[in-house]
Amino acid sequence: MIRHIFTVSTGTLASRLLGFARDALMAALLGAGPVADAFLAAFQLIHVARRLLTEGALNAALVPAYWRVHDRDGVAAATAFAGRVLGTVSLAVFVTAALVGLLMPLVIATLAPGFIGQPAFLLAIGDARLMLPYLAFAGPVTVMMALLNAHHRFTLTAFSPLLFNIALIAAIVALLVFPREPAVAALMMSATVGLAGLLQLLVLATGGGIAKPLRIAFDREIRDFFGSAIPGMIANASPQLMIVGAAAIASASPAAISWLYFANRLIDLPLGIVGVAMGTVLVPELTRAARDNNAAFAQSASRGLELSVGLALPATLGLMLLSEPIVHLLFEHGAFTAADTRATALALTWLALGLPAHVLTKALAPAFFARGDTKTPMLAALAALAVTVTAALALDRSYGVAGIAAAIALGAWVGALVLIICAKIRFGLTLDPATRARLWRIAFAALAMGGLLWLATRSLAAWLDGGHRLSVAVLLAGLIAAGIAIYTAGLALLGVVHPRDLLQSLRKPDLRT
Predict the structure, then answer these.
(1) Burial, 229: exposed, middle or buried (Cβ in 10 Å; 0-12, 13-18, 19+)?
(2) What percent of the chain is helix, strand and coil (3-state, nearest 5)?
(3) Within 10 A of 1 (CB to CB), how many other CB atoms are there?
(4) Where are the domains of the chain?
């Protein structure tokens, strides 16, 4: 399992790093004004669709359903089932994209009510409509990725999302070299989003052969699949749904949507590396374990929770302690000002408090998905969304973007706690003794790293705040490397990890693929 998680995490890391380059260029091009708010509000719509569909979310329903048909009726029946899913999902998202395009004024009014009556309203409608082709291409991309994951062909699915960011980076660089009016530049970037979806579809089509013949069907098997897929996709997109709900509240404040967006992009790096990888790999792993015995299921679930907590805690502390220099280095250039940096860093500090909860949710939800239960994680996601919106309404007036970010963190923890309680009640999920023994040592190592990192940032504050961009980059890289080294050494000294065992797990061939 660790080897597969490493593969998916590597691809996700590369995609997120390209995403940072894209967002840094985007900040330089558009800044944090009305044009940026309009573009990012539209982009969030596509971003949620991307998370709902392409980034491992469909594993929640398709992988267990595919293997049930495979085990019951054989390879040919499973391949035919996959062909029906591919054809039907493709049609469904095409029709959905067309309807959303027609109703886009109502959609933007719902997602960003603060835009109504402002120039940003019409700008957001135009941007969002040009992005919609991506949603249509995401249908077949979704099914192809899930089926490849089911067969443990993780490399193609892990690295194909890079094309999305590569296409947008190329467009933004061209616009920086050959400048256009900001509103025109936003429209050109929006059109590139649809092209990026086509590129990803063409690449994934090379890994075909596991979904044929291609058909559109609404038989009972397909209806059952959709009945479990839709709740599962909603559950997997919980972090993005909370951001969208919070952005609806923030839309009344100038630049607040932009600040939240750029802060959340930094949360996306560890969440993507850990959360997407865990969700992509754990669903097939737990599905097989659930077919074997409860002990194997508990062991796989415990290991998933242990890995996610062990990776999320140091990331949380690092983002909180280094929030302002990171935002300054990545985004403060061009139209993105020092005031934008301070507001974005403040939002990032509060958002980071919810990162462990987001990752716990990503690790807990597969335990339900593997047993065919996608509704409980969906209800947890909706509870988290309701808490986020309610808290954001209460905190926005007094605390602004910081209050909205804190509301998102609160909602994330509510969703995680709901899943923990339900997992205990529904199937008695408990951590195995080895995991329980290691968790407190993981927390201790993370706190030790955080304490030393805090002392280092205090000592280097003058250089981090006022130094040349290159020197700040070198200092940050050194601090991050030192934090990783301290944390890893702490885990080794406390007996949590053994380097030789880790290397062996990464090199061990998987005989089931």
Answers:
(1) buried
(2) 85, 0, 15
(3) 17
(4) 2-431
